[in-house]
Every structure is written in structure tokens, then in C-alpha cells.
Amino acid sequence: MAPSSRKSPMSGNTATADAMHADSNPRLTSVTARVVMAIAVSLSLYQLYTAGIAALTALVQRSIHLGAILSLTYLLKPPFKSARKDKLTLWLVLDWLLVGASIYCTYYICSNLSAIFERQGDWLRMDLVVSVVGVLLVLEACRRVIGWIMTGVCLLAILYAIYGPYMPELIMHKGYSIERIATTLWLTTEGVFGLPLGVAATFVFVFVLFGAFLESTGGGNFFIELAYALTGRFSGGPAKTAVVASGFMGSVSGSAVGNVVATGSFTIPMMKRVGYRPHVAGAIEAAASTGGQLMPPIMGAGAFLMAEFTNTSYLTIIKIALIPAVMYYLTVLLFVHYEAKKYGMEGQPRESLPRALTVLREGLHFVVPVGILVYVLLANYSPMMAGFVAVVSTLAASLAADTLRWMGGGRKTTAGVDLPPSPAGFAAVEVKSIVSALEKGARNAVMVSIACAAAGVIVGMVTLTGMGLKFSSLVLDLSFGIRALAILLIGAASLVLGMGLPVTASYIVLATLAGPALLNMGVPLLVAHMIVFWYSQDANVTPPVSLASFAGAGVAGANPMRTAFTSWKLAKGLYIIPLIMAYRPLLGIGKHYSLLHWSVVLTVVTTTLGLVAFASALERYLLRRATWLETILLWLAAAGLFWPDYWADAFGLAAWTAVLLLQKFSVPGRRMRLEPG
């Protein structure tokens, strides 16, 4: 065969690509891009307006937000991988029909709001049609953006609501009609437009937009360079800085989700820059921000509520809460450190890093918006207002800096864009930068908003069927008087309640319903409330409805469910430490104990070592990658150090010491033979 008669695979792929390109319709692509830009920019401006200028009714504000998000989803995401957006096909026509349906279903709510409120329960046929179509639009958007797992959970929740009478006796309910389910999900704030979407449509979007403005104006690069200058010589330094910073900010912000989007705008890009995978960066921020609710002095308003419930001084609450909170952060830091070591994220030589003073001098104007943001948060303004102020101050600082550069003959903006000499050219560059930031903010918010809308379906079914309260009451029946089992059941109940309630409300309900069960088992009052309060946080980082994880995924541009499962792993201290509280004097409470009592000190030491052993066993890493023998010993060490007996402590400490010696003194050649691969 002549050489010219053969084609390589590469040339065949090129020919196919050329054929596809020739078959595309540039005009259609241009029209779609313009429509996407118009919707995205309008949505961002609308969100800024509702955040800082005029608030709207919850159902109206959230429905307009969701209508725009659904439209962007169907314009940007194909129904399957091989479907094309650059050619007129049946699938493209269907996508545009779905856009029209999304706009109409949300317009229907806004135009009939008063009538919808008046006829609650006495629905018209059109109410039912719009509700069914709206829920299906959300499920299809969830399938395209997130995947089948969360869509399947939503469908199972709906099926559970329909077939309640046929369920096992423990979870049986009377069952609900399609009309009741659909209208609850679409025409009330108990379903799609409930708490999860309310979070996404308010401060999450505004802070995602803040991150987009930082990136477009060069502020994101400034903070990344500053983090490099300060922490670049440490292994995984920016991530460790992010954990500590999120802890301090979360303690006073009162919201894990708000803290994720506020500090995550800076910390998540830093972590990605040094090598952390996007879903891991988002998960680290979510786990760290959740811990902020456990860290004194504010504890997300939990300290004040607990003091009131238990008739205890506020000072006592923050005193006993400090040590467990520090332990939680130690666990997160260990996971961060091991991730850095396993993926070779070593520190860099000092001479290869930028100088901190030089970076500060060139980007000092970006410190002003951050200072304003911190002040507004500490001054007790709402997260929405804080996000609005952050966006406006970032834009103002960037415009002022660019204007001074242009007037001084500078050639580039703070973002590195060329500066034209004419005033008209300068104005055009700035307007283009602003429009780009507005569009990017809306695009970045699509994933988290769709995730929260789908979570609203689960929330609505949990609320409608009474599953949340049913879980709490089952604690007493299913624990059989076993304290550890009761605590685990309370954790499960808090997870279900957390789907529909904010952390504070979840704590109140659990303390009222499940708290007495712990008291009857001999758990002291303050310990019982602290256990309930810790578990009331778990819905932030536990799938399928982990709002802090979804917010972190939105900022990181990662898959929400993958981020949620990773944050669930990182936050393991949230589940382990309350069990220790129930069996050992970790809090130093009781007439025979104080924080300096020998048994309290011993508990703190053994629990800390147990958490180190647990994290090391889960990651299979301590001083280096652990062999299977070392991993088994680490699991045994963690179990022994957590077990509430002194003989178990001694056994766990011996196992822990054995692993440490093996890791420190094992021969490298033999170690390599023991390791897998």
C-alpha cells in the first residue's frame, strides 16, 4: 500500500473536527453567547439591587433568581455530551423551549403572587401544571449540572411522599397526591424556593460575584501572591492559613455558608494555585467554616442560646467550648497537611517567592475592600449587605487605581490589561471589565444554585411527610438505653432536620426533643446541650444536603457532591468529639472536675492523640505513607485512645508509639517493599 493512501488516527480526528467546525453555525453561536451575557449580567445587577438597595418578597426574589439560573443552565449545558450547541438540531430547539418554560414558570409566580397566597390549598388547574413543569425543570437542570446521584435522591424523596402508606411502619405516613407535592414544592417556600435556594439566591451569589470582581480586577492574583509570599515555604501553607482564618471569621460571622463564600473568595483560589484539587479546596473551606460555629466567643449565636437554655453564664459556655473546638481544627489541619504531603506540595525556596512588601505596595488598594468587608461583618450587618459593600468597594478601589495609573501614564490596569491613551478607550476597557465580572459571577453561581434548588425538593418532602420530627422521636425508641447509640441517632436526626432548618433552629428542636433522652441516660445538662449543638452543625458538611460544601463547590468550580463527600471526611472530628464528651470529662464539667483536673488533662491528651491516629489511619499517612501493618496499628490506636477505659488508653498509646517508631526508624528499602505498589 502506498504511504499516501494511509491516514493516521490523528489526521482522522483532525478531519472530523474540521467537518464539525464547517457544520457549525457561527451566527447561532453568537446569538446564544449574547443572550447568555444579557441574562447573566442582568441577574448579577438584580442580585446587587436586592442585596443592598431594596429587598423583595422571598418567593419573588428567589423565583426570579431561579428563572435566570435555569435559563443559563439550558443555554450552557447540553442534555448529553454529544449534543451540540452550535448547530440547529432538535435538541437545541428543545433547550430553547426549556428556557421559555423556565421563564414562564417563574413569571407565573411573580404575576400571581397575591392570588397564590389567597388560594393556598385551593389550587387551580394551571397552578398544578406550572408546578409540575417547574419541578421537572429543576430535576433536569440538576441532572445536567450535578448528575444522576442527587437527581435520584430527589426522585426517591418524591416517591416516598407519594407512597407513604406502603412504607415500613417506622417511616410510614398517610401519603400525598401529586397536586399537593408539586404545589408545595413550587408555589410555597417549603420546597424548591425554601431555605437552601434562599441561601444561594442571597449572600452566596453576592460573594461569588465578589470573587468574580476580585479575579477580573486583579485582586485575586494579589491575594494569591501575598499568600505565596507569606506561606509559600511551608508544605500546603495557604491551605493551613485558610483553615485558621476561616475559624476566626466563622466564629463571629454566625453562618458557615456565609463564611465559605466570604473567606473562600480568597482562600480557595490560593489552595488551587499551590496544587489542591478544586473539590478538595472547596471541602477544606467548608469544613473550616463549619468549625467556626463551634469556636468561641460567638459560636454562631449558639453560646448565647446555650447559656439561656441551661441557665449558665456565657463565660462558662465559651470556657468549656474552647478545647473541643481546637481539637476539631487540629483534625482538619492534619487532613490538610497529609493531602499536601501525599501530593508532593512541598514548600518553595524563599528566593523563588515574591517579597511580601513588594506585593503589598503594588496591590495595597485591594486591602481596603477586605478591611471594609471585615468591618461590616463585625458590625453585625447582614451577609447580603456585607457582600454588596464588598463588591462595590472592590469596584471603586479598582477604578480609582486604574484611573491614577492612566493619568500617570501607566500602560496596564491592575488586572494587567493594556490601557489605551484616549479617555474613550480607557472607559471602554473599564466597562468591558465590569461586564465581564458580572457575567462571570452569574456563570459561577449556576452550579451551587441548581444544587440548592434540588436540595429544596428533598427539604420539602422531609417537611411535608414529617420525617424530621419522626427521626427525633425515634431516638428514644431505638436507642435501647445505650448512650452511644442515642448520640448517633441524634446525629442522624440533626442531619435530617438540618435539611430544612438553619443551625440555630435545628439546635433548638433537637435540644427540646432529643435532649431529655440524654439527660435520662445520666449525661450532664451542659454536656447534653453541647453534644446536640455540635451535631446540629452536621448538615453543613454531610451529603446529600450540605450547604457549606455546595457553596465551597460554587466558589471552587468543583462538583458539588464530590466536594460534599470530601468535606464530610475532613470534618470527622464533628462526629467523634461529641461521643467523647458523653463518656469522658472532656469539658471539665461536674463537682469533681475542673479544666486542670488530672482526668480532664488525660482525656484531652488521649483524645488529641486519638484524633491524630484516626486522621493518619484514614489517610494512611503519618511521617510518610503508612504500610498496611502501620495502618491497622493506627486504627487500633485510635480505638484504644477513644475508648473510655484506662487500660484501653494504655493499649492505644502503645500501638501509637509502635507506629511512630516504625515510621521513624524503618529501613527505607524495607519500607518500600512493605508499601503497596
Brief write-up:
By secondary structure, the protein is mostly helical. The chain contains 31 helices and no strands.
Identify the notable features of this structure and list them briefly.
0% strand; globular; disordered N terminus
List the helices and strands and how they pair.
Elements: H1 9-23, H2 26-52, H3 58-76, H4 90-111, H5 113-118, H6 125-145, H7 148-162, H8 178-187, H9 195-217, H10 219-231, H11 237-253, H12 256-273, H13 278-292, H14 302-310, H15 314-342, H16 356-362, H17 367-378, H18 383-407, H19 423-465, H20 467-478, H21 483-500, H22 503-513, H23 515-520, H24 525-535, H25 547-556, H26 560-570, H27 573-583, H28 598-619, H29 628-642, H30 646-665, H31 668-674
Helix pairs in contact: 2-3, 2-9, 2-19, 3-4, 3-9, 3-19, 4-6, 6-7, 6-8, 6-19, 7-19, 9-12, 9-18, 9-19, 9-25, 10-12, 10-16, 11-12, 11-13, 11-15, 12-13, 12-25, 13-15, 13-25, 13-26, 14-15, 15-28, 17-18, 19-21, 19-25, 20-21, 21-22, 21-27, 22-24, 24-27, 25-26, 28-29, 28-30, 29-30
Task: Describe this structure as you would to a colleague.
The chain is an all-alpha fold and 677 residues long. Among the domains are: 27-188, no CATH class; 596-677, no CATH class. The protein contains 31 helices and no strands. The protein is globular and about 75 Å long. It starts with 8 loop residues before the first helix and ends with a helix. Mean pLDDT is 81; it is low at 1-22 and 668-677.
